[in-house]
Amino acid sequence: MIRDAHSFIGNLAVLAGDTLEAEMRFISADQIEVSKDSEGDHLYGRRATWWADHLARTGRQDPARLLTQRNIEICQGYDWNNHVAQCDRFLGRLALNSGDAVVAGTRLTAAAEVFRDGDFLIELAATLPDLAEHARVSGDLDGAGRLVTEAITIAAPRGIVPAHCAALTARARIYATPGATGDADLLYSGRDAADAALRLAIRHQLAWHELDALRAHSLLDRAEGTNRGWAAKAEALHKRLVPPGLDPDPLGTVERLVAQKAAEAESEEDED
Predict the structure, then answer these.
(1) Exposed, middle or buried: residue 245 (CB in 10 Å: 0-12, 13-18, 19+)?
(2) The domain containing residue 83 runs over which residues?
């Protein structure tokens, strides 16, 4: 229960942009997991997905990928299809960010199918903006627009604010894409979407979604051939969210801490 509490608080800290608090909470949760798990595994299930997302957003893709690859193996072993789909979505995001559209499409489509079939509407709403981004970078702007509309239709009336923000930001990126910006009205629509995402993110203190909205405004600046200062605002927020000195190998750090604690306990027993 303490492990789970650390994980939940860590995820809330991530949403709010308190990176150091999130770092401490996930490390604490993982220490409990590694020390108590019969195979010495790190966090798995939803807890691992939250931690992996935090690691990737703060520039540590390798440990995030390693954690998720083991997570998906464990979840497949237990037939936890929804958790497997969460892993697929995360790995799809990593592939999308690295420019591997083929792997991204396969992973994200698989995740969306599971969430749709199981009526996991919150998870589906969170996945559709990623699929829309995949469609956008693949050149299917109409398909991207339909996916964004579906995400907003699910998220907005249900108050699923993170997914709503992500969908609005995805819509802004679509309108900032070369080939979609011939009409000035589309750029205005992109600004409206980015503004709406930014307002929602600020109102609900969703720091990373705020950053995404600022970056969408920056893309619209580029499409307009102007500079309204959005890129500088995004860079300043990113520096706050990713402070210097973050542990590059938190999984290894946890393993060392657990081994050290076990050695200390064994030494105390020998003394007794």
Answers:
(1) exposed
(2) 1-119
- Of 127, 118, 130, residue with least CA distance to 86: 127
In a shared domain, residues 105 and 25: yes
Query: In 3D, which of 97, 111, 102 has the Cα closest to residue 212?
Result: 97
Helix (H, G, I), strand (E, B) or coil at 209: helix
Assigned token pair, 196: 């709406």
Residues in the chain: 272
Task: Specify whether 58 is located in the same domain as 107.
Answer: yes
Kindly tell me if the per-residue pLDDT of 223 is higher than 70: yes
Distance CA 238, CA 231 (A): 10
Report the number of distinct structural domains present in the chain.
2
Q: Same structural domain for residues 97 and 188?
A: no
Q: State how far the Cα of 44 lies from the Cα of 31, in Å rounded to an integer.
A: 13
Domain-located, residue 252: no
How do residues 41-66 score in pLDDT, each as one tens digit?
999 999 999 999 999 999 999 999 99
State the Cα–Cα distance between residues 45 and 77, nearest whole angstrom: 12
Domain boundary among 90, 119, 148: 119
24 by Cβ neighbours in 10 Å (0-12 / 13-18 / 19+) ranks as middle
Is there a domain that residue 92 lies in? yes
